[in-house]
Description:
Layout: H1 2-8, E1 34-37, H2 44-47, H3 55-59, E2 65-68, E3 76-79, E4 87-91, E5 94-95, E6 116-123, E7 136-142, E8 151-161, E9 166-176, E10 180-191, E11 195-196, E12 200-201, E13 207-221, E14 224-238, E15 246-261, E16 268-285, E17 295-315, E18 318-338, E19 347-369, E20 374-389, H4 392-398, E21 408-424, E22 427-438, H5 442-446, E23 450-452, E24 457-460, E25 468-480, E26 484-503, E27 516-538, E28 543-556, E29 569-577, E30 581-590, E31 608-621, E32 624-633, E33 655-663
Parallel strand pairs: 4-7, 24-27
Antiparallel strand pairs: 1-6, 2-3, 4-5, 6-7, 8-9, 8-33, 9-10, 10-13, 11-12, 13-14, 14-15, 15-16, 16-17, 17-18, 18-19, 19-20, 20-21, 21-22, 22-25, 23-24, 25-26, 26-27, 27-28, 28-29, 29-30, 30-31, 31-32, 32-33
Amino acid sequence: MKEILSFLLVFCGFNSVISQETHQDTISPKQLKEIIVIGKKTQVFEKQTKSLSTVDEYLQKSSRVGMIKRGAYAWEPIINSMPTERTLVTIDGMRIFGACTDKMDPVTSYVEVSNLSEATICSGQEGACFGTTIGGSIDLKRMKNTFRDTTWNFNLNTGFETNNAQKITGLAIDYADSLFYVATDFMFRDADNYRAGNNKEVQFSQFRKLNLSQTIGYKTSELSFLEASVIYDKATNVGYPALPMDVSLAQALITSLKYEYKPVDNLIKNWETKIYFNTITHKMDDTKRPNVAIHMDMPGWSKTYGYYSKVEAQKGNHHFLVNLNSFLNNSLAEMTMYPNNPNENPMFMLTWPDVDTFYNGIFLEDNYAFNCHSSLRVSASFGVHSNKIKSQFGLESLQIFYPEMKDTRTRFLKNVSTNYTITHGKFQYGVGAGYGERAPSVSEAYGFYLFNSFDGFDQIGNPNLKNEKALEGNAFVSFKNEKWTLKAESSYFHIIDYIISRPNSSFIPMTIGANGVKVYTALDYATIYSVSLSNDYRINDKINWNMKFIITKGIDSDKMNLPFMSPFSYSTNVSYFDKKITADLTLLGNGIQNDFSPFYGEDKTPDFAVLNANFGYKFKWNRSKLLTKIGVENILDTNYSTYLDWNNLPQKGRNFFVNINYML
């Protein structure tokens, strides 16, 4: 009965701004993608609670996204309670793969709020535009520049946080004229160890990060332009208190060249083609940890070449989208163990055996508007996914466990979805269904003795895994008038051949103190469902109140709970905004996590509640603006961990912050 009642509730609210994409047509389809505004947009940016938040802090405001925290930096985003193997994260449509076997470098860690405009979040198969996914997708979109009369813009950002003495400095310079634009952005963060509630220092939680971004555009005709962009991101001395190792270097170079064509009065409305290249270097380090049983070096590298060509078209009430996309990724990671006895030889292994992954696919979508009240969206994609192990040494290492395995494996992946929405007066309803497939990740298929500190097991990949498949259903109902916006939403995933690691007592662990060895296998199925309810009430033109509730449940075919499922969680917020002043008071928390998963390394997480407040003021002189934000997070200095905190990592205690943004 409890589960049935939970399923009838629903989830969606968030404190950030959400919009729906629309076309400038008399009859337009309804796009239900969730959009979190991050960067500079008129007034919206000024309303942000904390304008210099990290990208991670912005994303966790979403109703769909959670963040697995292993430290104060580079949190792993999960969508619909599914980790990165089952989801898709892109930057302006570009595929990027981390170089860390322990997921210390998610794609979100290589961008900054100062060079992003928004994050587009899609649930399930709605997010398959740039590749296959099970849980959904996040596309981090860069600031869009425009050709205009000759103009210079300058932005100076600075901030400080007391809890970990974090210093934030940023500078942006933007020039544009009728034929050319260039935008350059710089952001630097430096933080010491943070303190949990009751002023308890969390060792090895420091980090330092530098991010540089530049975009250059040239107008080739009245209907087309070229754009080149580059992102350089470098993090050093990054501590991960929830893991046995830290990071001495996490470095990314992300480049692209785009050609965009916008015809006038034509079937094709927009045609965008991009080629891109990115390279990631990641080095794990344990030299600053005391009492290390055996010193290890664990570097990793990832390189990705790719392209996409995306066409948007319209004929009558049909709105079409076609996207051809392809990438080639190479992933290589190694580990060297140095015995304490200098007379013993170091031990070397390839933890990712120099694996090439090639994908080539096509995505098709038709969003048909029956009338101004209802629309039907249908999409499908097909892709060819191929792996090749380039290292003979790596291949032979895995052949110890799989003597018959080959160095190549090709898979065919299919995705399809449909969503129907209808508006009736002040109510809107929607229902959708989908089917998707994904290939095993490099770690799941070819990982070699990867230590998981969450459950304490070494993990070995399995190249013989089948494609994971998911059936999906979703529904929502919303009500909106001049004062109220209410929304109830639910989603359900039935995942077939669910990939997970299981203990194998016939293998001996490599890591000192490990509980044993797990080998990736496929369960018959697993199910995940979530329900939520959100409310937004406009008290008057200046005061707004909103709240949200969510609960998620996941079980596998052996009737065991899945990890990282949200217990009952809630937030409520009262905000004030006028031309110069903003103020915000937020209460958020979780109930007790009773449905935890000991088999997967979880334990019971207590309930908690956290209170935050902030105040902002805007000064204006001619073209110049100065935005100031001061606030305090965790006012009561609560000592707590959430269900997403790796190994019960305690979160920050009381934290005062100040953000200053000067715009000219």
